[in-house]
Amino acid sequence: MKIIDILSKGSVVPNGAYGSKRQLLEELAKVASRQTGLDERIVFDALLERERLGTTGVGKGVALPHTRLAGLDNIFCAFVKSEPVSFDAVDGKPVDLIFLLLAPEESGADHLKALAKLSRILRDETAAEGLRQAKSTDDIYALIEKYDAED
Question: Which of 13, 17, 94, 143 has the CB geometry, 3.0–4.6 Å to 84, for a possible disulfide?
Answer without folding.
Answer: 94
